[in-house]
Specification:
The chain is mostly helical and 215 residues long. The chain is built from 11 helices and no strands. Helix 2 runs antiparallel to helix 8, helix 5 packs across helix 6 and helix 9 crosses helix 11. It is elongated, with a radius of gyration of 18 Å.
């Protein structure tokens, strides 16, 4: 897509609005982050943060989790939704970490995506937040807000990610990811965005009535 001429202004305003934007999930190491992001699928970060302390106390590392059976993990994560599949994927992922990587989470995008229950978004989050790599993870907030603003013009998350990588300077990828999430949670809600009070209003495709911002 052709770069939005207002991209620089939009990014500067997002940075001004959310200078301390950071991951909402609580974690102390790459293993904990990987587990938390797997649990966050179709679940709020708030709910994930409520269950992970007990989960990590019971299974403090990949080796401990690898020794469990899914039905033993399920009670810890029942409130996260889809807990049968998530428990299965967590145990299989832990076993893969032990068998392939000595129990450590690999700092490699392709290796992460090869793990059960780990898709592109999860791999991007782990690479960015655990290992400091520049990456943009497109969740529902990033997809919605970036397309409404005109930072992207795409019908799916992969194309949105590609366009954001083209239009946003690489050294801002990870921070922009969090800015867009914060804006989606606090201002640009899915059903009723607060366009009347949004300081990005003048540069927003959605607010200005441009059809390409109506995704």
């Amino acid at each position: 897509m052709e770069a939005n001429p207002n991209t620089r202004l939009i990014l500067a305003e997002l940075e001004r609005l959310y200078p301390d934007a950071k991951p909402a999930l609580h974690f102390a190491n790459p293993y904990q982050l990987l587990v938390a992001v797997i649990l966050s699928a179709q679940c709020t970060d708030v709910k994930v943060n409520l269950v992970t302390p007990a989960l990590f106390a019971a299974y403090p590392d990949a080796a401990a989790l690898a020794g469990a059976e899914p039905e033993q993990v399920e009670p810890y994560i029942r409130t996260c939704g889809l807990y049968h599949n998530k428990a299965k994927n967590l145990v299989l992922t832990a076993r893969a970490l032990v068998e392939r990587y000595g129990g450590e989470v690999p700092a490699d995008h392709d290796a992460l995506e090869s793990l059960p229950g780990v898709g592109r978004k999860t791999a991007n989050v782990v690479m960015s937040c655990a290992f400091g790599e520049d990456a943009i993870a497109v969740d529902t907030h990033v997809f919605r807000v970036s397309n409404r603003l005109g930072l992207a013009d795409a019908g799916d998350v992969l194309k949105t990610e590609q366009q954001l990588m083209e239009n946003i300077p690489k050294d801002q990828w990870s921070r922009a990811h969090h800015w867009l999430i914060f804006h989606g949670r606090r201002v640009c809600a899915a059903r009723k965005p607060a366009c009347e009070t949004c300081t990005l209003h003048a540069w927003c495709e959605y607010a200005c009535g441009n059809p390409k911002g109506k995704k």
